[in-house]
Amino acid sequence: MNSRADELLAQAAVDALVGQLALAPKPGLPDPRDLTARATRRDHSSLRWSARALLPGLTAMAAAARRTGEPSARLRADLGAIGRSTEHTVGLTGGGHRGALWTLGLLVAAAALKPGARPADTTALAKQIAAHPDRRAPRRPSRGSTVSARYGAAGARGEARAGFPHVRRALTALATSRAQGASEPEARLNALLTVMSTLQDTELLHTAGPIGLRHVQAGARGVLEAGGTATEQGAAALTVLDTDLQARAWIPRGSAPLLAGTLFLDTLSR
């Protein structure tokens, strides 16, 4: 495999992130309806621009995985170093997408280790990579790790070390919705709501506490139990949830990167 293969993997990941950004209406999350991207206070076009700034870093992560050839501690260290450099670059273009870089970086590296693998095998490889500590990482705790420790939530790190269970569930929801006749945006929204319905989102725990998290999870489940976004009742429930989260300024930020990871693996499998 050559550098062109690395670039193609990285481009597929960036396209998945841009696809996630373009999806609407995403309850509580920035989407094209927002000129000012309410959830991040960044213009939506700048979010799309900064998403594309991930491309060199993700390409380098794929190349590092191919060079290393196994989900080793060395590869984990290389990915961490590339990730920190990429965060700096993305910051110069407007910032954002830290969670997406973590999720997509691991999945891109795993896909590079075993091209053509099934999504379940790719997430299993990502789990093996994430199991290694990044010994070069800064020692100061992040907000996410602090919230995880306080509430016992898995967080982004725990999600990866478990093999991205929410990505796997979202892939199933995506396929099921398509088979039931949902449009592609409706199927993707159902996948997002599947993630939101059970994810222990550390951003929500930080801003809304456990009661707020359960409120959002219940709202997402309510849309799905009403038949999903392809039904009249489900679409109405989605509107109620979106309006509610906007009014409360609650942001289910942890779900968005996992949807991007879902769309990336879906693209590879198709």
UniProtKB/TrEMBL annotation:
Keywords: ATP-binding, Glycosyltransferase, Nucleotide-binding, Transferase. GO terms for biological process: prosthetic group biosynthetic process. The keyword Translocase does not apply. This is triphosphoribosyl-dephospho-CoA synthase. It is an enzyme of class 2 (transferase). It catalyses: 3'-dephospho-CoA + ATP = 2'-(5''-triphospho-alpha-D-ribosyl)-3'-dephospho-CoA + adenine. It comes from the Bacteria. GO terms for molecular function: ATP binding; glycosyltransferase activity; triphosphoribosyl-dephospho-CoA synthase activity. It comes from Streptomyces violarus. InterPro entries: CitG (IPR002736). The keyword Magnesium does not apply. Its EC number is 2.4.2.52. Residues 124-152 are annotated as: Disordered. Pfam families: CitG.
